[in-house]
Amino acid sequence: MASDASRGESLERQQSLPTLPSKLTLDYLKKITNDFSPDRELGHSAFGTYYKGIRGNGDILAVKKLAENSPLPREKTFVNEVTNLMALQHENITELVSFCREAQIKLDQREGRYVAVHIDESLLCYKYLSKGSLDLHLFDETHNKIDWDKRFKIIKGICQGLRFLHKELDRPLVHMNLVPSSIWLDDNWVPKIADFGLSRLFGEQTQVYTKNVVGQNGYMAPEYLFNGEITTGLDIYSLGMIILEIVTGERNGANREDRAATKFVDKVRQDWKTDDDITCKYPSLTDFGLEQVKACIVIALKCLEADQNKRPSIEDIIDKLNGKFVPIFQQHE
């Protein structure tokens, strides 16, 4: 009988087109990522690590290796959920093209003895985007400075992707970990939300509350951070922080003592109040661009309301970005 590795090589020869089978072997994914080599790492998230997978025909995959023994459902449910996620198509979400789920036995040293431990290895394969994640461009000074038009395009694209997840599916899909590193960019600076289905895979979306609070300081809404409450308002809060970071080009600087990044938010309120403050940061800004920046700051600060009932919906946000009158934002004007 052929080994998993030889089946992977056979698969490679058969798949000369970009389309892949929905399920791949672990040996095959080890091969194309050089056994998950550190020099193939593309980035990390709260749920695992991305690796660059280079196929024999030159095609590249972004292979996400989920943390070992993540709280995933049984095989059948996992496959069903992943299959549903692979069917989702939108310009502003990453394309999930295949997956892997295999049981492995590893030796673990405990109290001086080696013990056989059963591990479920779970991996998700996405279409690779060469520009990488948004955080690489916002905060890395070695990259070219992003002009305001690109920043605004990115903000609108993220919002459109979030509207798809919140409003256009059979039930709202809460991302739960929306951060700059989970937003990828294509060659035309079109943003695409990644990691958008992990909350369903981990079963969190079947609950209103969770005890397993996972995320990055600065992006977690207070009702989730302190109470484990899961609603679309969680993503809206995260979006507000991301918009402030896109507008300012600065990290929010959250830490254990300032988990809500209040110092950063207060600094934005102080340093971006007037038209002169804004044009000082963007000297070549047109009058139309100035209004866009001001609208984005108003939106972001409203998204960061501690009371989730005072936050706007994603539809309110998109209407405001499109220049429409939206009552919920008036008090922040």
Automatic annotation (TrEMBL):
GO MF terms, alphabetically ordered: ATP binding; protein kinase activity
SUPFAM superfamilies registered for this protein in UniProt: Protein kinase-like (PK-like)
Superkingdom of source: Eukaryota
Protein kinase domain mapped to chain residues: 36-329
Pfam families the record matches: Pkinase (PF00069)
Entry-linked InterPro entries: Kinase-like_dom_sf, Prot_kinase_dom
Protein name: Protein kinase domain-containing protein
